[in-house]
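Hey L., structure's done. Input below.
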Amino acid sequence: MKQILLSISLFCTLGMQAAEINITPDSSLTDAVRKAREMRRLGKATEVTIHLEAGTYYLYEPLRLRPEDSGLTIEGDGAVICGGMKITEWKKQGKLLVADVPDFNGRPVDFRQLWVNGQKAIRARDVIDFEQMNRIRTYDKKNHILWVPKKAVEKIMKEPYAEMVLHEMWCTSNLRIKSIEIQGDSAAIRFHNPEAKLQFEHPWPSPMTPDTKHPSPFYLTNAKELLDEPGEWYHDIRGHKLYYMPRINEKLEMRNEKLSATVPVLETLVEFIGSAEHPVRNITIKGIKFCHTSWMRPSEKGHVPLQAGMYLTEAYKLRPSIDRPNNHKLDNQGWLGRARAAVELRYTENCNFEGCRFEHLGGSGLDYVIACRRGKTTNCTFNDIAMNGYVCGSFSPEGLETHLPYQPTDFREVCTGQEVSSCLFQEVSNEDWGCVAICAGYVSGINIEHNTIHDVSYTGISLGWGWNRDLVCMKDNKVHANLIYNYAQHMYDCAGIYTLGNQPGTIISENVVRDIATPSYVHDPNHWFYLYTDEGSSNITLKDNWTPSEKFLKNANGPGNIWENNGPQVNENIKRNAGRK
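Output:
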């Protein structure tokens, strides 16, 4: 039987009652939140803090925080909120370990990530070293066929659920393979829909073909025949079996019966659910680790992104192009969806995260989705995340073509006054290589300050959206004193700090950007930058940013941008002061 221990104390100096609810990992988080809600409703307390004892709290569905929970604090030093289930019973099968995958909450489980003894394992693929990826041969848009070398696909001819991950300039596509036909020394690959239609109809980004110097690389995954390296795994969804090839150090753990795997079963752990008239207010979460989530859309419908992991739901080339007053002609249309995150907030005010960890995640980390005001994310760590780390604001509503200006009639929709500061981002975007550490779209008054970002696949900080210089809802944003290095691990057409759109009053200052990665397989080895104001960027000030050289790009910018004292000559004190505090 689950128990909740309750203690109440009175703070006379504040003239209010403050209750404390203490729970253990055997207790229900949902029940604790409901108990706090009822205490406030019945006038027994005006402020409630839920203390989580150290340990792991497994969920069977997301914890939902509503307007009735406003004023709540949830804290726990050493507490982990987990969206996974453990697998500990293994049998040997040659070089492999095999485990049964039990149902979860009454249903069979599918998953795209696995962690073994706390370390992320590799979903079986045809290359361990990405420098060894094969290259495409021909890209047949008319017939929706991708031609590749025959030798690249010989192992997976009979695999039912194999996938291709295709490198495309600034994005990667996850494509479920429908059929493979061998012709001579080449193979014609067809894909399932909807991603096949999206992949071959959308013009940007596109794969590079062999008539360029750098034809697009790809790798193949999710096939048992590719399971041939220590640390790799494969899930037989039909047979409910998990196959894993242990690393050398894990063989001893197996003998000692200490080898434990975690399979993610949830996409989201916590949801803040308010409305424009009744937002969720004044909730603070402290010292909690959020871990072990997945995002299953790529297994069900593929994943063809436009940028920063925002996936296309429909897209095609325009003939003739559209004339746009105040902007250059538009040659394509696109509508977008958004990946799930471990923690999602909608319609909130002053909802904050302090000293939390977002780690071992298969979607994004923390996402202020819509209508969030004045939330702070401070002293948090974002580590081992498949997609974006911190996300904030709209990236075009689902019904708005993504190149149209976004200026909502109800400004409450816009995320305003957010802050992300003194946070660490590392090993973010380690599956969807086109994602970024900090991803802010249509936002107003965001403060991105004193963060350290390193070892990310693409851009460090992306600010703005729309590819349009028209006046929109963005303004008064601040990117200050961040340290960004070892970025662009897999993708180019990138920068340490990247902007889009018209953002009056926005200031990018005293940041340090250095040490870009140099993968051999990018589409254009010279197309990378420290600072990058992209299409429509207007009314932005960039000053006193330290970079090793003045490798900047100003692409199709609008008016009003100010560039002042950026480069290696910037004061050393600025260089020393950047980064997490």
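The chain has a mean pLDDT of 95. The first helix runs from residue 29 to 41.

-- N.
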